[in-house]
Amino acid sequence: CSVCFCIRDSRLSRCFTFSRDGTLFSWCNGHSVSVVKCSDGSVVSTFDLPKTTLLEFSPLNNVLVTWQPYTKSQDSPQGDANLQLWDLQSSQLIKALFQKKVDSWCPSWSEDEKICVRSVNNELHFFENNDFNTIANKLHMQKVSDFELSPGGQPSKVAVYVPGSKGAPSFVRLYQYPVLGGPSAALANKSFFKADRVTMQWNKKASAVLVTASTEVDKTGASYYGEQTLHYLAVNGETALVQLPKNGPIYDVAWSPNSAEFCVVYGFMPAKATIYNLKCDPVFDFGTGPRNAAYYSPQGHILVLAGFGNLRGQMEVWDVKKYKQVSKPEAPDATHFSWCPDGEHVVTATCSPRLRVSNGYKIWHYTGSVLHKWDVAAGSELWEVRWQLFPERSFPERAVKYQAVPSELGSTQAQTTQAYRPPALRHLPATPSSKLHEDEPPQNLRPGVSGERSLSKSALKNQKKREAKKAAKQSQWCFCVFQKLKAIEELKEQQASGKVLQKNQLEKIQKEGQLLQELQELKIRQ
């Protein structure tokens, strides 16, 4: 999962990015912006844009977007357009726009590039087929503060957030392009108080959105993180408040790539992590632990719960189909984590400016083995690490391994540590009552047999009938096999006593091994 050639630019790079399909690579070195092919390093385009600090490709690689900080000067008191859209085939400028804030700096495209949208003065401007000279549609409400375009192609949907004012609640609404006006235009609507800002996340199938609403200050004084609530909106109109059983911050929310489940990391430390279904019912609780982030593999078969930042860098790797822990490696001082598109490897890195010492990165196998390690030279800094991207479905899901893969660098499994005890209790024997908190173990919250999906009463009743019928059939078959084996045993006793057996009786004895194997297999299935 790396570029097929090596780029070495001795000048300090301000930024870099891969195209979504991984075929192109672009960077700015403080003198110019370059675009090259990942297959052989050949130059596609070069732009004289020394101040560029952000880069992005459109989904089909038709447009390169560049952004530099907005500035004013005596020669240009109004400032210059600082957001440029470039045609990658001709290297010509398509449109120059003003984008003063770095937040939501890049226009959002649908995957087929038929729709593009950007926020301008609290309203949304929609463009079609990369024609940026004509605004094809607008969504104007009272101060649209944020938006999120749905993934995938048509029909495109958009989630919009309008903050509350003068006692009115904040709200998020879902629309399907191009129906943006009128009282019944919204696909779903969710209102809530206590929201200074929100984070909106579509699932991969664009059927639902999770909204994390946050306040800057917790007025109860319980947390310096402020207050957070999690809301669910579906394009079929269903909405819900996701109930989190432990008080405290919401650290992370992650959709599974299957679009049917999501994981939430929340609560005062040690934090809980729980998987919910589309009914917002808890499916599996991972218990408590030192964690503040969740990362699904691109294929969705593995989930990593991690504790970075002010935590020790512990990672819990889980097989989410069996809900079984695979490994528990540790990456101290890590400031970055990301999955390789192959779903087999991850990278952790310590980067500036978050940490300016011990910069470097490690490539791991998810079983906990460190496969490669690189540290920057003394006096240098590492600012960013990215995997080369690949088209979707380039890497099929593989069976989950539990044994650490071989590595010369070994593994760094997290060591079991004793629970924190206040100084006043450290001279006393450790007892359950002297713990600062009680650790909660993982538990499957699905009804019925472990690992089953939640079923309706009628479906569960029918399932039990089918299972009972199947069990009865297997029991009957076991009895038949047992009777045959008993008959063979009697024939063997007769043969041992000197009786001459007939041909068909001898054939029955020869089938003893086959029948024993059948009986063993039936017992395993029961």
From TrEMBL:
<keyword id="KW-0648">Protein biosynthesis</keyword>
<dbReference type="GO" id="GO:0003729">
    <property type="term" value="F:mRNA binding"/>
</dbReference>
<protein>
    <recommendedName>
        <fullName>Eukaryotic translation initiation factor 2A</fullName>
    </recommendedName>
</protein>
<dbReference type="GO" id="GO:0022627">
    <property type="term" value="C:cytosolic small ribosomal subunit"/>
</dbReference>
<dbReference type="GO" id="GO:0000049">
    <property type="term" value="F:tRNA binding"/>
</dbReference>
<keyword id="KW-0175">Coiled coil</keyword>
<dbReference type="GO" id="GO:0043022">
    <property type="term" value="F:ribosome binding"/>
</dbReference>
<dbReference type="InterPro" id="IPR015943">
    <property type="entry name" value="WD40/YVTN_repeat-like_dom_sf"/>
</dbReference>
<keyword id="KW-0677">Repeat</keyword>
<feature type="domain" description="Translation initiation factor beta propellor-like">
    <location>
        <begin position="190"/>
        <end position="385"/>
    </location>
</feature>
<comment type="similarity">
    <text>Belongs to the WD repeat EIF2A family.</text>
</comment>
<keyword id="KW-0853">WD repeat</keyword>
<comment type="function">
    <text>Functions in the early steps of protein synthesis of a small number of specific mRNAs. Acts by directing the binding of methionyl-tRNAi to 40S ribosomal subunits. In contrast to the eIF-2 complex, it binds methionyl-tRNAi to 40S subunits in a codon-dependent manner, whereas the eIF-2 complex binds methionyl-tRNAi to 40S subunits in a GTP-dependent manner.</text>
</comment>
<feature type="region of interest" description="Disordered">
    <location>
        <begin position="408"/>
        <end position="467"/>
    </location>
</feature>
<dbReference type="GO" id="GO:0003743">
    <property type="term" value="F:translation initiation factor activity"/>
</dbReference>
<dbReference type="InterPro" id="IPR011387">
    <property type="entry name" value="TIF2A"/>
</dbReference>
<dbReference type="Pfam" id="PF08662">
    <property type="entry name" value="eIF2A"/>
</dbReference>
<dbReference type="InterPro" id="IPR013979">
    <property type="entry name" value="TIF_beta_prop-like"/>
</dbReference>
<feature type="compositionally biased region" description="Polar residues">
    <location>
        <begin position="409"/>
        <end position="419"/>
    </location>
</feature>
<keyword id="KW-0810">Translation regulation</keyword>
<keyword id="KW-0396">Initiation factor</keyword>
<dbReference type="GO" id="GO:0006417">
    <property type="term" value="P:regulation of translation"/>
</dbReference>
